Automatic annotation (TrEMBL):
Pfam families hit by this protein: Beta-barrel_RND, BSH_RND, HH_MFP_RND, RND-MFP_C
Gene Ontology biological-process annotations: response to antibiotic
Domain Multidrug resistance protein MdtA-like barrel-sandwich hybrid as annotated: residue spans: 71-213
Full protein name: Efflux transporter periplasmic adaptor subunit
Limits of the Multidrug resistance protein MdtA-like beta-barrel domain: 248-298
Location of the protein in the cell: Cell envelope
InterPro entries: MdtA-like_b-barrel (IPR058626), MdtA-like_BSH (IPR058625), MdtA-like_C (IPR058627), MdtA-like_HH (IPR058624), RND_pump_MFP (IPR006143)
NCBIfam families: RND_mfp
Species lineage: Bacteria, Pseudomonadati, Pseudomonadota, Betaproteobacteria, Burkholderiales
Length: 391
């Protein structure tokens, strides 16, 4: 009887367990799970993912620079005197040879007249000395003159010739100084304001004042410092003019002007690890002025395919760079990547990613490798080509 009672109780417990499992099986759609397993499964986190950008690119580097004039001239007086005229408007465009200032020319015209008179006197004395020497030569051949008198006539003629040369030089110097009273533009370009106006007395020498400044406008330079790698890759050979160069202004998102490398400095700055580069650009519209900030882009080589991602999606693990990849099963994977240069707001990935793969771009702090996610597909941040519709 005891054995039969135990058997009945055991059978009842077994039936109860089977009934409970059946209920769980029915509740979860035919898949048997335990409460512990259900509690251990992490919920899928909502994250923003973007497909890596794939496009054909040309390698280039971006730098900051300033516009510089090819000719930057300080206009100073070369003769002393009083300014009697200013011939330009402040900020006007002038051509080479256009008058800028006039210094009172009367004292210098008088000096030219005086030097010309002295020249006429010297030429007269030279003519008389030449005739006297010719006469002495004839007399010497007939032994009708002393050798001493002949030598004196010859010496007087030579002195007269030298006096004529000195008088001519004095006339030339006086004419040069007279020409300096009319100050003209040495180059074509844009003139600044007149720092000294009519009535001011100016002097020459070390204390000569600056009357105004003049800068050439077209062509014009853009100067910037490039890193050592860019120099070795693009600029260390002789054909620097073939390296494409672009600049963009502060109010532009792109690069509106193309130019050529004009010169590269003769040494690398060891403090900054950069070398000074100067590029030449046309400036027919006069928009570029010296001192203007520009973004410069230097590049070269043939276009080649590349994958690009936003810098915000790249994480650092000690010395490694990685991204969080979302696979076909919407699970997170750790993917180490190798970085290249920046291209139009995105970072070139030289290794670790393939075209079409998805990476987490927002919500990375909420997930770890192996976690399931609910991906929300967005555009890659910083993709200037997609934003503008460019390829």
């Amino acid at each position: 009887m005891v054995f039969k009672r135990k058997l009945v109780i055991s059978s009842a417990i077994s039936l109860a367990v089977i009934a409970g499992v059946g209920a769980m099986y029915h509740t979860y759609g035919g898949t048997p799970v335990t409460e512990a397993a259900a509690a251990a499964a992490p919920p899928a986190a909502d994250v923003d993912v973007a497909t890596v950008v794939s496009r054909s690119i040309t390698d280039y580097q971006e730098y900051s620079g300033r516009i510089e004039a090819i000719n930057d001239v300080q206009i100073r007086p070369l003769v002393s005197g009083t300014i009697v005229a200013v011939h330009f408007q402040d900020g006007a465009m002038v051509r080479k040879g256009d008058p800028l200032f006039t210094i009172d020319p009367r004292p210098y015209q008088a000096e030219v007249d005086r030097a010309a008179a002295q020249l006429a006197s010297a030429e007269s004395r030279s003519g008389y000395a030449a005739s006297d020497w010719e006469r002495a030569q004839r007399l010497l051949s007939d032994n009708a003159i002393a050798k001493r008198d002949y030598d004196e006539a010859q010496n007087a003629n030579r002195e007269a010739i030298a006096a004529v040369k000195a008088a001519k030089a004095a006339v030339e110097a006086a004419q040069i100084n007279l020409g300096y009273t009319a100050i003209a533009a040495p180059v074509s370009g844009r003139v600044s304001r007149a720092l000294l106006t009519v009535g001011n007395v100016v002097s020459t020498g070390a204390n000569a004042p600056v009357l105004t400044t003049l800068v050439s406008m077209s062509p014009i330079y853009a100067s910037f410092d490039v890193d050592e790698r860019t120099y070795l890759r693009f600029l260390s050979h002789d054909s620097k003019v073939t390296v494409p160069t672009w600049i963009g202004l502060a109010n532009e998102t792109g690069y509106s002007r193309q130019g050529v490398i004009d010169s590269v400095d003769n040494r690398l700055d060891t403090g900054s690890g950069t070398i000074r580069v100067r590029a030449r650009f046309d400036n027919a519209d006069g928009v570029l002025v010296p001192g203007l900030y520009v973004r410069a882009r230097v590049g070269g080589g043939a276009p080649h395919p590349a994958v690009l991602v936003s810098d915000a999606a790249i994480q650092t693990d000690q010395e490694k760079k990685f991204v969080l990849l979302v696979d076909k099963e919407d699970k997170v994977q750790y993917r180490e990547v190798k970085l290249g240069d920046q291209q139009r707001g995105l970072r070139v990935i030289t290794g670790g990613l393939q075209p079409g793969e998805r990476i987490v771009v927002n919500g990375m702090q909420r997930v770890r490798p192996g976690d399931p996610v609910k991906p929300n597909l967005v555009q890659m941040s910083g993709d200037a080509a997609a934003a503008t519709g460019a390829s």
